Amino acid sequence: MRLTLRVWRQKNADTEGAMSTYEVDGISPDMSFLEMLDVLNEQLILSGDEPVAFDHDCREGICGACSLVINGDAHGPEHTTTCQLHMRSFQDGDTIDIEPWRAAAFPVVKDLVVDRSAFDRIIQAGGYITVPTGAAPEAHATPVPKPDADFAFEHAECIGCGACVAACPNGAAMLFTSAKVNHLGVLPQGAPERESRVLDMVARMDEEGFGGCTLTGECATACPKGIPLFSITRMNREFVRAARKGR
After folding, report:
1. 28-66 per-position pLDDT tens digit
2. Are 161 and 224 within 8 A, CB to CB?
């Protein structure tokens, strides 16, 4: 396959960026999208140019590092992560636009790399369970109803990639935050901090500069792990309930 790539290049957070055009040839349909970028970077290095900076880690679809907007879609045309997107999803001769996440709370570090530490700070605000340290409890010591366990597992699948923010017209982080709040809140271990957790995490989310949620649903559509939109409405109910008790 021969492709034309239009890639966002930005030296650092303090400089303006622009799209640069590159031609790549010999791309196998069986390559992943990141492997195709590896080929581009090898080509750039051999020609004495600076390679394109992009985030990646496990390349197995479980770490959430591979954050790219491809032809206007977070993670590209398939419902998966960028590292699991293969070049057979494109046609020979295609022009592909490759950009970083676009959100005020995710400033560009360099080229396609953005700073997603705002997510870390939301987790630090309450995305955990405070328990005494020591030996792990017996697995059956705390019974959990199967519907609750299934609900918790469904929301624990969130990998924090940020596709929900990138896809949202407002740059909201409600799907990410609700996944973390609901995952812990439904379990008996998380019940004691259920109210303070949702209040603190939502407050931190707002402080980070994410946009407001209008429930357009683009976040759930872009989520590679299928976190459902009703996760947001459930968190909203939890937040209202906790806020009323707080008064």
Report:
1. 999 999 999 999 999 999 999 999 999 999 999 999 999
2. yes
